[in-house]
Amino acid sequence: MTRSGHAPDRPSRRAVLLTAGGLSAAGGGFGAGFGVAHAASGAGDPDPAAVLRVPTPGEDLMTEHGLLIRVLLIYRDLMAGQAAGQPVQAGHAHDAALIIHDYIEAFHEELEEAYVFPRLIQAGQLRPTVSTLLLQHARGRELTQLILAESGGTGSLPAAAADQVTSAMAAFVRMYEPHEAREDTVVYPAYRALLTPAEIADLSARFADLQTEQFGGGGFTTMLGRVAAIEQALGIYDLAQFTPPNITPPLT
Fold first, then answer.
1. Of 184, 147, 190, 191, which Cα lies nearest the Cα of 166?
2. Which of 3, 25, 55, 134 could disulfide-link to 152, CB 3.0 to 4.6 Å?
3. Position 33 in a domain
4. What is the rounded CA–CA span in Å between residue 197 and residue 199?
5. Number of structural domains the chain divides into
């Protein structure tokens, strides 16, 4: 149990995902349970109009990666501030880590572990990569628990706690930047190649329904709002500030 009141609950969460998905731990077949994207003819082919209304599984997962990247940028800003001698605000560190805990680890990674990785293993593909990604998920959860435990409370973190928190953030960022890049460019395309159009349509609806079950309507939008609030508090929300100056001389 962390100071934030979050205890590990992976077995029950995994059971929910596997049951809802009709999958075995070894990556078995898909259940039919979501008819929103299937044609009324009963042929089992996806309805193109319905497919266009929801993102594909890969698109969905990559959008969630975009959310994670924004939290990594928050981590980087907190790390840079601490390195420059600024205090680390407990609330910003804790809130950012909670987004990782609540959405990335408790939902996004659970989808990968229940759907994506087993299918690749079943197909005999990317086994070493999947093993490394699973290990990194576990290490990431350990780092998140450390950040949550050390950032409880309000105000500025004591120097020792700030050092531990920013050190954990640095390790998390260093691991997850290549982690995300490898999934986006190698893992998700390989997974996509294994799926039939009907499975893509079914999984698209299933991922959306699982998110609603876990977070209610607008779960991703809510998380995005939480990220934006921290960005605004830190002064890093305005995208224009990251544009470099023009390096070419003005025309005369």
1. 147
2. 3
3. no
4. 5
5. 1
CA-atom Rg of the chain in angstroms: 20
Residue 44, in any domain of the structure: no
CA distance linking residue 207 with residue 20, whole number of Å:
10
As a whole number of angstroms, the distance between CA 212 and CA 36 comes to 15
Q: Could you give the CA distance from residue 67 to residue 57 in angstroms, rounded to a whole number?
A: 16
Distances (CA, A) of 26 to 32, 118, 162: 18, 6, 42
Output the tens digit of pLDDT for each of the chain's 252 residues.
444 444 444 444 555 455 444 443 333 333 323 333 333 334 455 555 454 556 789 998 999 999 999 999 999 999 999 999 999 999 999 999 999 999 999 999 999 999 999 999 999 999 999 999 999 999 999 999 999 999 988 899 999 999 999 999 999 999 999 999 999 999 999 999 999 999 999 999 999 999 999 998 888 999 999 999 999 999 999 999 999 998 887 776
Q: State the residue range of the domain holding 79.
A: 55-235
Which residues are CB-neighbours of 204 under 8 A, at least 6 positions away? 37, 51, 54, 55, 56, 57, 60
Q: Is residue 76 part of a domain?
A: yes
Query: Which CATH number goes with the domain that contains 111?
Result: 1.20.120
